[in-house]
Write a structure and sequence with these properties.
Largest sheet: 7 strands, parallel
Strand content: 15-25%
CATH topology: Rossmann fold
Distance between the termini: 29 Å
Radius of gyration: 16 Å
CATH superfamily: NAD(P)-binding Rossmann-like Domain
Shape: globular
Number of helices: 6
Oligomer: single chain
Length: about 220
């Protein structure tokens, strides 16, 4: 019998690619996307639900699944402040994970960030690291965390810093020892997540930088 996947962050760079690939994945029968605005999909396997992330507990019935793919995220510029960004990147994601764990979802897959650490002085890396730490306390049978380098692809909102980095980083990664930091596309991250969901693995596992590329 095919399995059910819940995706949050389905309208983002990785999330869009992930939903497309899940719709074509043989082991997935149903894909539930939870979004803040309508996000239709051509595949009949994909069911979109517009939810209020401030009241996710009202949608607990939607979290009954085999997988929770968590790709949600924003920037300080889009959110308006670090506090508002933290609400999306940490609070919303953790609440979704709690609801999934309470509903017996066995496998949680998270898109985090390279160098994420709860001890980081960088607010973004700190919130990502805090989320990773909190997730480990939840009763998932398996947690898979992906820490990619710079994400490449067409976003809804222009990000100047990422654009500049996309010009510079590939050249720097030609230097011996830096290849593992090379940029990666949203499609490549999504493909790795789906491959991991198909295969057995450790109860807690990280995939960092070039480990996310499919060889």
């Amino acid at each position: 019998m095919g399995k059910t996947a819940v995706v949050i962050g389905a309208t983002g760079l990785v999330g869009r690619a992930l939903v497309d690939q899940l719709a074509n994945a043989g082991h997935i029968e149903k894909v539930i996307t939870l979004t803040r605005r309508p996000a239709g999909h051509a595949s009949a396997k994909v069911s979109n639900h517009v939810v209020d992330f401030d009241h996710l507990e009202d949608y607990v019935s939607l979290f009954g699944a085999d997988f929770l793919f968590s790709c949600l995220g924003t920037t300080r510029k889009q959110a308006g402040s670090i506090a508002a960004q933290r609400k999306v990147d940490l609070d919303y994601q953790f609440k979704a994970a709690q609801l999934a764990a309470d509903n017996g979802v066995p496998h949680y897959l998270l898109v985090s960030s390279s160098s994420a650490s709860d001890k980081s002085n960088n607010p973004y890396l700190k919130m990502k690291g805090e989320l990773e730490q909190r997730i480990q306390a939840l009763p998932f049978k398996r947690v898979s965390i992906f820490q990619p380098s710079l994400l490449m692809g067409q976003r809804e909102h222009f990000r100047l810093g990422e654009k500049l980095a996309s010009w510079v980083l590939p050249a720097l990664c030609l230097i011996p020892g830096l290849r593992r930091f090379r940029p990666i596309t949203g499609e490549q991250v999504a493909a790795k997540m789906i491959r991991v969901s198909r295969q057995p693995g450790e109860a807690l596992e990280w995939f960092r930088l070039d480990e996310i590329f499919i060889q």
